[in-house]
Amino acid sequence: MPVTLNTTDPEFERRFAELLSAKREDSVDVNDAVAAIIADLRARGDAVLCELTSKFDRLDLTPDRLRFTADEIAEETAKVSPEDRSALALAAERIRAYHARQMPENVSWTDPEGATLGWRWSPVSAAGLYVPGGQAAYPSSVLMNAIPARVAGVERLMICVPTPDGVINPLVLLAAQISGVDEIYRIGGAQAVAAMAYGTETVRPVDKITGPGNAFVAAAKRQVFGHVGIDMIAGPSEVLVIAEGAQNPDWLAMDLLAQAEHDADAQSILITTDTALGHAVAGAVDRILPTLPRAEIAGASWRDYGTIIFVRNLDEAAALSNRIAPEHLELCVDDPEALAGKCIHAGAIFLGAHTPEAVGDYVSGPNHVLPTARSARFSSGLSVLDFLKRTTLARLTPGALAAIGPTAIRLANAEGLQAHGASVDLRLAELNERTGE
Ligand SMILES: NC(=O)c1ccc[n+]([C@@H]2O[C@H](COP(=O)([O-])OP(=O)(O)OC[C@H]3O[C@@H](n4cnc5c(N)ncnc54)[C@H](O)[C@@H]3O)[C@@H](O)[C@H]2O)c1
Ligand SMILES: N[C@H](CO)Cc1c[nH]c[nH+]1
After folding, report:
1. Are 3-24+236-377 and 45-114+122-233 in the same CATH fold?
2. 237 CA distance to ligand 2 centroid (A)?
3. 99, 328, 330, 368: which one is catalytic?
4. Which residue in 115, 193, 204, 376 has a CA-CA distance of 20 to 30 Å to 219?
5. Helix/strand/coil for 123
6. 101-154 pLDDT per residue, tens
7. In contact, 216 and 192? CB cutoff 8 Å
8. Residue 372: CB within 6 Å of ligand 2?
9. 327 annotated active-site
10. What number is the ipTM of this complex?
């Protein structure tokens, strides 16, 4: 049974606060375990990758087998059916078209004083893409990471993907090939993130790590941030469905279960103005759940984190949604555009009953690597911008230096930074000498 809340309940605020503070991916246990893995990896490199791959993925490796060879990739990708190939190709094309539009322009202008100013975008040199693989395989996540990186112009792209029991989904390798990935390693979890950040004897480190993963992966990305860049915290999946009126309860139940089946730590929430609809959806989840192959995972997620919230109106729903800041927000209401305007904190919004979240996981075009655990309050889904840096540019003419230099000298002196002021003053003195002033 999911938790049921009602905004008319005097206890609502306390219970909603409990929901917001539920620690699905940020527990002390996970953080401590991850810190120990990172420290060990930094001390012992490849040996740790091999030991932990054996422990967590039940795969015995030697350092020379950490990376997929070209022959292994060719052998696996040859197994993909023509139908799956075309599905992957269509998804890749739509994701590329969407992300190409995100490429920003360099900007430059000359101001009235004669200073030419601007900024220039350039890609990171090397990016490491984490592709989850513990409980499911994610070829779609390969496309969602690698295509924006390629659009941005990243030179070197590597992937880490765990292969439990040594099994790789061939579509993962094909997706990597389609999107131009250079290196693929069969490692996962915090140790893979640490290897991409710090390097080992076999794994060359990167400058930026992106991609989703479970609680261990999310914690590892948090901990290596600063040594390398990261995109965001993209942990266990979440969906918030806001529904009113005559919606099909089975459709909504399936949307909730679609995210629940990712991970026992995933979270699915329904907010509704309609009591009968809320109960019908709960009943539909109970009926459908046992029929799913991943019933155990989805059932644990729904039992531990599933929630139904009854509200008085859609304004209340929008306000609660903004406090939850969900990864995915589905608006199954009569006027989804109007409601979307009020929902400002969400990773991705799906408008209307015919836009199931799952279409965004694969093929609509926008990225499916999205901020979780309320981080959509301050971060966004993966984009081309995550693989770019902005460098500012300035060039002053002698006239421009004469115009604004004295202000720099004044402020430098006010800060007590003599050399700063003098570096301007020396040039101005020479200019004054030349012009005889
Ligand atoms: N937010 C997003 O954009 C997004 C997108 C896709 C998937 N996801 C999420 O990615 C996650 C995928 O999780 P997964 O488990 O299938 O694959 P995963 O690759 O993220 O994690 C598997 C790895 O976790 C490590 N691990 C497992 N148990 C451990 C333990 N007890 N101690 C230390 N390390 C341990 C192992 O190294 C293992 O290889 C799901 O939570 C899913 O919801 C999120
Ligand atoms: N729903 C996930 C993001 O949380 C992405 C995904 C990949 N495959 C299926 N779904």
Report:
1. yes
2. 7
3. 328
4. 204
5. strand
6. 999 999 999 999 999 999 999 999 999 999 999 999 999 999 999 999 999 999
7. no
8. no
9. yes
10. 0.97
